[in-house]
Amino acid sequence: MSFLLSVWHIVAKRSIANWRLLSTILIGVIVAVAILSSVPLYSNAIGDLSLRHSLQNTPIELLDLQVYAPNYYIDYDEFESETEKISEKLPIKLRQMIRQEETWIQSQTFNAYYTDRPTPGGGYQPTGFFSVYSNLDQHINIVDGRLAQPPPPNLTQEDINAPDFAIEGMIGSETAEILNVKVGDRLVFRGISGNTIGEITIELSAIIDPIDPEDEFWFLNSQAFTFPTVDEQGNPIPPTAPIFITEQTFFDIVPEFFPAVKASYNWFYYVDIDKISTYNAESIKSAILKFEHEISQELQRSGLFTSLGNLISEYRGKLTFSQPPLFLIVFQVAAIILYYLMMVSNMLIERQAGEISMLRSRGAGALHIFLIYFTEGLIICVIGAVIGLLVGAFLFGLLGKTGCLLYTSPSPRDRQK
């Protein structure tokens, strides 16, 4: 115990006597630690900025998740069963970044006919299909009429078979203009269902337009309301009429007229890109791959569409090439500082050669002298490490407040706003 106390006593005296030189060494240690400790923070910040830039400059619809299952017979129980399977298979990592879920169902295409005038045939035969969106009423403007209503709950088979029976549907304003129809007019969809030809009458209850055609809700579907009437060469093509009906009408009534008709199911999962960072990007990519594999196993003829996994892969590849130069430059600076510290330490030892000889003449052993200098070095390193970490974090925080680490160029979505 007295041995250690004597060491501390000598260290204290030496530190007071050589405070200027020791302070120089301490400052060098603080600078080296501050630089080295800020490198991971700066590297992570660069990674976050790179990922944020990639996410913000990619159309959000390409980052969202779309589960697509085509050619299913119209059956509500099967649709609900597939929806539950997808929900169960959705990994927790993906569920945590999902901010909205929607569905879209599209039937196969039918021939469309007017009820109040002759319908062009042959190459000019109009066509149409049924479209069912969840929460459609929140994303449309009603130009004329009212929302389509589901059939009454007490509807009988006799009512369905009545000659004047019709379901309610809505049509886009441009398509209504092309077909020259208005609210209250009727269209007939006719098509082959198994070995028979079925037909169903639709009474137009509303003419509608999307509130925002570029809204993420439509999932880049530019033909949700209107199809082009000319091809790429400018030749006229027959009009196609998307008719919007309720989910209940689609599952309860349409199969009564077309028992073998098929539809395509789409489940949309809208991603919150603010919940994607460098810390969870790789796990999100793995979750996407797992989800894609399990969906293909559980749902026949289904697939998962998203560019998020590829974007993360590209980001990680770019990060692999951008980080090494940063570390090389910082390590060179740190090596210069450490070399400076070694030179100063050697100078300190040379200056104290006489003091070491004096300690030996007074009975101090090699272990005693080693502990004195080791304790001095340990104190300098501990103090320098603590202060250096604090200084590095403080300077990095100031750098963030200056805006140097903020991505200021507006993304395409920001420019639209």
Word description of this protein:
With 417 residues, the chain is of the alpha+beta class. The protein has helices at residues 2-17, 19-56, 60-63, 76-89, 92-95, 157-160, 173-179, 247-252, 254-257, 281-298, 308-351, 353-361, 366-401, 412-416, and strands at 65-73, 98-107, 110-114, 127-133, 140-145, 167-172, 186-193, 196-210, 240-244, 262-271, 303-305. The chain has a six-stranded mixed barrel with strand order 3-4-9-6-8-7. A hairpin with a 2-residue loop joins strand 7 (186-193) and strand 8. The longest helix has 44 residues, at 308-351.
What is the gist of this entry?
The chain is α+β, with helices and mostly antiparallel strands and 417 residues long. It has 14 helices and eleven strands.
Itemize the secondary structure elements and their pairings.
Layout: H1 2-17, H2 19-56, H3 60-63, E1 65-73, H4 76-89, H5 92-95, E2 98-107, E3 110-114, E4 127-133, E5 140-145, H6 157-160, E6 167-172, H7 173-179, E7 186-193, E8 196-210, E9 240-244, H8 247-252, H9 254-257, E10 262-271, H10 281-298, E11 303-305, H11 308-351, H12 353-361, H13 366-401, H14 412-416
Parallel strand pairs: 4-9, 6-8
Antiparallel strand pairs: 1-10, 1-11, 2-4, 2-10, 3-4, 3-7, 5-8, 6-9, 7-8
Helix pairs in contact: 1-13, 2-11, 2-13, 4-10, 10-11
